[in-house]
Amino acid sequence: MDGRGGSFVAVRRITQDHSHTAEVVAGSGAWIGKGFSCVCVQGSDSDPRLSFDLTPSQEECLQKLQRRIEVNYDNADPDHQDALKELWNASFPEEELSDLVSEQWKEMGWQGKDPATDFRGGGFISLENLLFFAKTFPKSYQDLLQKQEGNRAMWEYPFAVAGVNITFMLVQMLDLEAVKPRTMTGVVFLKLLEENEDAFDILYCITFKLMDQQWLAMNASYMDFNTVMKSTQHELEKQLLLLEDITHIEDMPYFSLLQ
Q1: Could you tell me which residue ranges the ELMO domain spans (predicted)?
Q2: CB 139 within 8 A of CB 259
Q3: Burial degree of 63 (CB within 10 A; 0-12, 13-18, 19+)
Q4: Quick count: other Cβ atoms within 10 Å of Cβ 173?
Q5: CA distances, 155 to each of 141, 146, 147, 148, 217 (Å)
Q6: Which pTM does this prediction carry?
Q7: Where does 112-251 show beta strands of DSSP type E?
């Protein structure tokens, strides 16, 4: 993370009669969101002098993913609006959304009543990642959204904004905006992407679940989010580098975390 002051939203968990509600509290600090400071650092295997040749298939897969990464969230685009509504319905199927700009969004861990302001750092792909997670691994998604597992902190990380951070961290870690990968983790990932066009979305889900696991193991609270994200990235890089010979994202040991 750089030294710029951003804004954060912490989610305080309140327990009453064994039911959980969320109270969103705004504050100041080095955090993600409207200022969107990066919470990750480039891995130790990074070297700008390195360059790896791609097969035509890998190059095509990378370019396709890069086109997704380049799309900004546009709150005037009907397709983007529909995707946002779909995310709400997948997250809270029994609660009707009153409007695309609503205080209800804070229930999901957005900083304010308009999620569009939080997509600036991650782009439309960060919404696609969340929606993929909600539809493909609904139990794991709901467990994280509702903070149903483990002994949670009084001040929890905001689910949705953390999700945008994870998208941003993965793009940086895998060096996905470069013409060719310059890290071994990027090379390993492109092999996985070549076999499964959903590899980035699946890796996102794995990373989100791993981040929450790290959060619980470290007994973290919101001021520890940066540390947890760095630990998550380190663990993910280590896993990818140890598994250079795997060709399917489902072969990653951490894939078993998803349900």
Answers
A1: 79-240
A2: yes
A3: exposed
A4: 25
A5: 20, 14, 12, 14, 15
A6: 0.82
A7: 155-156
- The identity of residue 220, as a single letter, is A
Q: Is 242 exposed, middle or buried (0-12, 13-18, 19+ CB in 10 A)?
A: exposed
Q: DSSP class of residue 25?
A: E
Residue carrying the six token digits 């396709």: 64
Q: Taking Cα atoms as reference points, which of 254, 10, 9, 22 lies closest to residue 148?
A: 22
pLDDT digit string (tens) for the chain, length 259 residues = 333 333 444 444 433 333 333 443 333 333 343 332 333 334 444 444 466 788 899 999 999 999 999 999 998 999 999 999 999 999 999 999 999 999 999 999 998 899 988 887 789 999 999 999 999 999 999 999 998 887 776 678 899 999 999 999 999 999 999 888 888 899 899 999 999 999 999 999 999 999 999 999 998 887 888 999 999 999 999 988 887 677 889 988 888 889 8
Q: 253: which strand partners?
A: none
What letter would DSSP give residue 95?
A: S
